[in-house]
Amino acid sequence: MSEDPLFALAASHGPARQPSLLQGFPARAGTGPALAENNPVARVVIESPLPHLDRPFDYSVPAELDDAALPGVRVKVRFSGQELNGYVVDRVESSEGGHSLSPLLKVVSPVPVLPPPMLELASSVAARYAGTLSDVLRTAIPPRVARLEKLFLAGDPLGDDPVETPGVTVNPSAANPAHAAWASYTNGASYLRHLASGGSPRAVLTAMKGFGPTAWPELVASAVAAVRSSGRGAVVVVPDYRDLDRMEAALLTVLPAEDVARLTADDGPTPRYRSYLRLLSGSAKVAVGTRSAAYAPVQDLGLVACWDDGDDLHIDQRAPYAHTREILLLRSEQESAACLMAAHSRSTELQRLVDLAWAVPVEAPRSVVRANTPRVLSTADSFEQERDPLARIARLPGAAWRAAKEGLERGPVLVQVARAGYAPSLVCETCREPARCTHCQGPLAVAGQTAPPQCRWCSVPAPDWRCRSCGSVRLRKGASGVLRTAEELGRAFPGKPVVTSSGDQVKASVNDSHALVVATVGAEPVARGGYAAALLLDGNSLLRRENLRSGEDTLRRWFNAAALVRPADEGGLVVVTADDTTTAGALVRWDPAGYAARELSLRQELQLPPAVRIASVTGQRADVVHFTESLAKDIQLRTVGPAPVILAAVQRESPRSPGQDHEADVRTLFFIPYGQAAHATRTMRATKAASAAKRTSGPVQLRLDGVDVL
Fold first, then answer.
1. How far apart are CA 494 and CA 357, in angstroms?
2. Residue 508: enclosing H or E segment and its boundaries?
3. pLDDT value at position 2?
4. Is the dihedral of CA 21, 24, 28, 32 positive or negative?
5. For the chain, does the N or the C end have fewer beta carbons within 10 angstroms?
6. Which is more confidently placed, 317 or 695?
7. Cα gap 127→704, rounded to integer Å
8. DSSP reduced 3-state for 103
9. Which residues pair with 536 in a beta bridge?
10. How many CA atoms does the CB half-sphere of 215 hold within 13 Å?
């Protein structure tokens, strides 16, 4: 694997070896404190976002701090006249700088929160994304809670530790429905056996069901139980708190409660740090959580697992914008751990892993798929068009209405819509021009049936709006949101309860009552016994987004919703409304792998991600040009730009006074073949650091593999 140029893993993207650098202010000769007898020099990584400070700095270790200043602990140091936090990454006998060193000021805590495997992983992630180690550690290591550290150092319970659940065994059982369900997947049973025997297999699982005892959380939990039976630990990462609750509950049915640690910032600093220390001490061997859990300090790691890698919640919104999938792939390589990437659909990145034979596909045969999935009907096919000529323009075609009516007789019916709110966009009734705010040019919307129009950006009401094109003062809804859809369906099906799930009112689950459940994409609740039917509305709106991945992402959202519906032999029916027969056809056939293979083939032909890597540089034109020219001295890449970032320019206008001059941001894109990726990312990282150190230009935003730039 280390010779594979298509992967930016630890072997090719590890941090460049740099000589130890002497920094800080030299102590006066003879006036400094007595130093430690053994290894009196500590190499410290300071917490700083500045790229030119992304390297270890040497400090002397006073004798009184000798026992506490071990690798991995938090310290305070003096740098450029300021006290900064940092981490000791090594203790050595001497510095190569040849100058006297500033001493460590303080050991903040003797707990080694940065173990060597995490340091190696964080360094590789920073190198892969051309970021700084400090930015990665900010995400990887939770904030300190002193009270918990005192308990940890004293060997006392950390408080609120889970109590062992009686009757729960670590060993996977063939009687477990989820364990047995693995056998219905091609390569599934052999994958579990390999895990249980201590091996490190790598698989891409295409799960069929999203509810019931053989749903995806139970499948992943069964794999974790298998690896735990071999005495090793596991890391499981999911996109959001609803998935986390389901995944944790599934794990607690096959593992002792004290063996599982939950890591998510949503729980607050104390529970998060408690779980981190439990994993660090080895009292818990399974970490489950959201993005930051990918760095969890699990001892003797045997498995890394990720659910739904196509969800953009897996992308950190702070520099260096790392993706959970790539972090886990790096970790799998560095710690020789098994890997499980699972989803209802398949991303093009995972398809590439399968094509390279790096991972084995675990998917059900067609006969099993037909027995476990609902029937899918597309209103765009020729038969439905002949029955209902207005199906293409109707938001609720006849087939969808019939499916909802019949489904409500058997159980709950799911309705997936694209937009939240009531009417999230308004247009002029006369000329159909989008209605814009007169203050900031933001889109107008209404929050309810009797609510006045107001701006979605600045929230300023617009009671006296007038169209700039035709002068009309009349507005109409350009699109219907989840609340408007729920209102219309309530009138169409009187007497049936309507439940909404969107925005900050997302529901994790609903009961099996005969109700209409209207939800935005990604906010669909789980029905315990599955939905009787599902209506996937607004497909054209999702597919027409100006994004390279609009089709792939839309299909992923459709599969996630359709997997919540009962099988066809139980009457389960999914109706999808979209004109794109290619994407809708993949759902009708229930063929996520075929769609991913076709999409990847097109990307390879056009040399677009993930066939190549992509880097975007955004900032003021002069700064972007300077970065591009500096980079071109060391490596030649296919380049597009600089071009104005229109959306960013509009957003920059909103807080400014009308007529105020400003320069819009521009963006340059670099397309990087995998064979050049290691050299290119090192060069970009060095170029950004050199520019910051010399102050030859202003700062630019550098992003690797951003999914929203194409």
1. 54
2. none
3. 37
4. negative
5. N
6. 317
7. 11
8. strand
9. 416, 576
10. 23
Look up residue 701 and give its amino acid.
Q
pLDDT above 80 for 33: no
pLDDT digits (tens, 9 = 90+) for 159-183: 654 444 443 455 556 567 888 899 9
pTM, rounded to two decimals:
0.87
Q: Are 403 and 521 in contact (CB under 8 A)?
A: no
Q: Rounded to whole angstroms, what are the CA distances from 635 to 630, 640, 641, 667, 670?
A: 9, 15, 17, 19, 11
Length of the chain, in residues? 710
From the number of C-beta atoms within 10 Å of its C-beta (0-12, 13-18, 19+), residue 169 rates as exposed
For 12, half-sphere exposure in the C-beta direction (CA atoms, 13 angstrom radius) is 18
Q: How far is CA 403 from the centre of its chain?
A: 34
Helix, strand or coil for residue 628? helix
Distance CA 572, CA 403 (A): 10
What type of residue sits at position 664? A
Least confident span in 18-32, 230-244, 319-333 = 18-32
Half-sphere exposure of 3 (CA within 13 A, CB side): 0
Beta bridge partners of 87: 45, 74
The separation between CA 421 and the C-alpha centre of its own chain, rounded to angstroms, equals 25
Beta strands in 31-190 (DSSP E): 41-46, 57-60, 74-79, 82-92, 106-109
Phi, psi for residue 126 in degrees, rounded to 5: -60, -40
Q: What is the CA radius of gyration of the chain?
A: 28
Measured between alpha carbons, how far is 497 from 412 in angstroms, rounded to an integer?
10
